[in-house]
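Changelog-adjacent note: as of this version, every example in the card shows the full chain rather than a window. The one below runs 480 residues end to end.
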Amino acid sequence: MPPLLHFLLAFAFQVLIVSGSSLFHRDNDAARAFVTTSNGTFQLNGKYFRFYGTNAYWAHMTTDEEMDRIFHDIATIGIRIVRTWAFNDVSCKPKSGPYFQILKNGDATINEGVDGLQRLDKLVATADKYGIKLILTLTNNWNPDRPMPDSAAWSRRESSQELPRGYLANDYGGIDAYVRAFRPEGTHDLFYTDPTIIQAFSNYVRAIVTRYSQNPAVMAFELGNDLRCSSTLKGSSNCNPQIITRWAAEISKCIKEIDHKHLVTVGDSGFYCLDCPKLYANTSTRRQPALEGPSFDGSYGIDTDDLLAIPTIDFGSLQIAPEQIQLFPVLNDVDFATQAIGDGGKWIEIHSQTSIIHRKPEVVLQSGIVSQRDWDLFVPNDQVAPKHEQKEVPCRGVEDFQVDYSLTFWASAALNGNVDGVLESNWVQSLMRNRTTPLLRGSKRPWEKRVDLDWWKQHGGPPTAQNIKQFSADSLPINP
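Full-length structure tokens:
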């Protein structure tokens, strides 16, 4: 290439970088402040704080350059809250890629190295650079067993039909990884009751919380994603909501003893146990004829009223994933999309009332619905392969306009109620190295890790931008 042409191309590239960066403005005062709660609302830097954000569980698996691009792009469209995994458990050291902890043969070893928690340090620093605050999730209810890690493909699972390590949200270890390591053949709920497992998890929690106890780039610590009595490992008949509530009280107390500046949430999907005895809640959501089925009878081992009433829990959580869970009984003669979107709105409305009862804010930690175009990429929480490979499961998914409508409808329900934050299920990103980026939405094949950002801008961008503006406009100054 002629030297002059090389120079002109390099100059043009720098202009593009500068012009792109100019779209982003960091609010330094807000970035330096901690998010707090008072009288059932979030507050930040002297204002009521409501937010519309996203999930990027995979962010620490990217390179430094990719990570910078991710958070730059997220900040540029106005998002200020991102939820991400602050755990990455493996049974032995992988051949490549980050990992945070080895769980094996009754022992837990935290990785403090450059391929360990230093990657999480980099993620927190990059988020702070762009004025983004993080919800750090400390474990996951879902971790289906996978091939033994000594297989040739373990490093990235690059065989033609295997998903790369870290591609799926359920491929970062979690509750079942602890049980397999400390109590082989044990039940899922031993995580909440076994003293050795509780100690191992508490040690990891202390390591993470201590690391970021003075860092305002962290909004909150989340005890665990979608906690339940069972997972791919079955739960015992002894598990009940009180067991998980006691565990949540113990772990959240541990966090608050180390760090009184950051908020703590449980991370559950918001299931109720309307008729259960309460450990902490003096008042709770009342039974109504419309509130029936597993989402309200404690079947999942969750009592969101009692969890929210724990003194060391600062805000409640709920999730909307229609393909993963049926929140309300199926209605006759109503199509899947119509019921799924409506059920999500009702779920938010019920939690708005729960927020009022307990005078604590609520957040939709993830919300989304799978489109028909993405149905062949959809992998349930308890599986390791896309649903289209399971012949007994018919193709579902919704139209693209219904995806857009669901996001807008749920955001409006939150804004009109008392749910102060909504996070979309997964951020997508383009221009990232094929071999390392574990993303989902927009990929042509689940093992190809490229994502088309233009598709997101076309189908996910308009409602997302609208929702961000609406939530930002609602952040009014606090009256003296």
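Structural remarks: The mean pLDDT is 86.
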